[in-house]
Sequence to fold (134 residues):
Amino acid sequence: QVQLVESGGGLAQPGGSLRLSCAVSGFAVDYHPIGWFRQAPGKEREAVSCISSTDGTIAYADSVKGRFTISRDNAKNMVYLQMNRLKPEDTAVYYCAADPFLRLEKLTYDSTCPSPHLYEWEYWGRGTQVTVSS
Fold:
């Protein structure tokens, strides 16, 4: 049974850092593409970052480039999102998602992750709240 469980959310001050974790069970994290998404109150869910299972390439939303880093630990079957220089506009519920049918590869700096509005990612976690406030 596939399960994704996010953790690591909380309250951070502007300019601070948090590291989100996504614990994956049911498949190996390097077997399917995995993405991080967020949804702020009153806004649509948006893609933040994603990592290819094929070649390990990565993409980020423009709003987080240079501040967030996605990584994967195959031994622990975990995916992380390191968030630095946090801003109040980063406040949202953060989700990780995976999809066994999505072919995602050769991502570059200018690539975008498949939006959940254009593509239905198969597996989702329940989310973790991130609040950035002084």
